[in-house]
């Protein structure tokens, strides 16, 4: 039995307003919890900062509308699984945008290791996009990894740069088949077929290559693709405290 159990964590919503109607269009802020076959508890990303709970916008981080309720806080979602931050054995940081690293502060003093791609760690300190007050937390051991890394059989980090330098995705073989959490390498469905990624990306060509790499992995393994911020897909998926099952 080498399969792992995966839980999708709903950690709030961010969105923008339709310029014509003023209506807010939201997509999810996700995190992922994996109980591994060897009994470890691995957390992938931490969602929005607690400071955003109940706030109308994502200020001071990004110019987005916000819908983060108390029950969306990472600590509350973990509690729903009977897990406290000190019970988490390993933190995988896909990247340090505020909606992915917003609750690193919940791990102050735990001595937890956070795995980050080496290139991301190298640029994050000097890029104002990545607020060090959120991710550079004393007592968390930010540990660089290089490229694809097998954490356990059937649980791998996949380097997927482009959205940011040193972005990473996560592949896991669950009790219900393989799942690929693309994170922001494929954040919405239109990116599956996009010819050219937006010029606002730090590296649009790397983003295209990463998308191709992830889609090749999906094709080769039959993995179910979970996109990073695709609201229509998210609405169809089973969230914690239920274990994930492929639709
Ligand atoms: Zn994101």
- How many E-type strands? 12
By CATH, the architecture is named: 4-Layer Sandwich
Q: Are any ligands bound, and if so which?
A: zinc ion
- From N to C, what is the helix and strand string? EEEEHEHEHHEEEEEHEH
> What would the CATH topology be?
Metallo-beta-lactamase, Chain A
- The CATH homologous superfamily is termed Ribonuclease Z/Hydroxyacylglutathione hydrolase-like
| Envelope shape | globular
| Overall structural domain count | 1
Describe the structure.
There is one protein chain. The protein is α/β, with parallel strands linked by helices and 247 residues long. It has a single domain (5-236), classed as 4-Layer Sandwich (Metallo-beta-lactamase, Chain A), CATH 3.60.15.10. The protein contains six helices and twelve strands. The strands form two sheets. The protein has a seven-stranded mixed sheet. The chain has a five-stranded mixed sheet with strand order 8-9-10-11-12, with helices on one face. The longest helix has 18 residues, at 204-221. It is globular, with a radius of gyration of 17 Å. The protein binds zinc ion. The site of zinc ion has 6 residues, from helix 2.
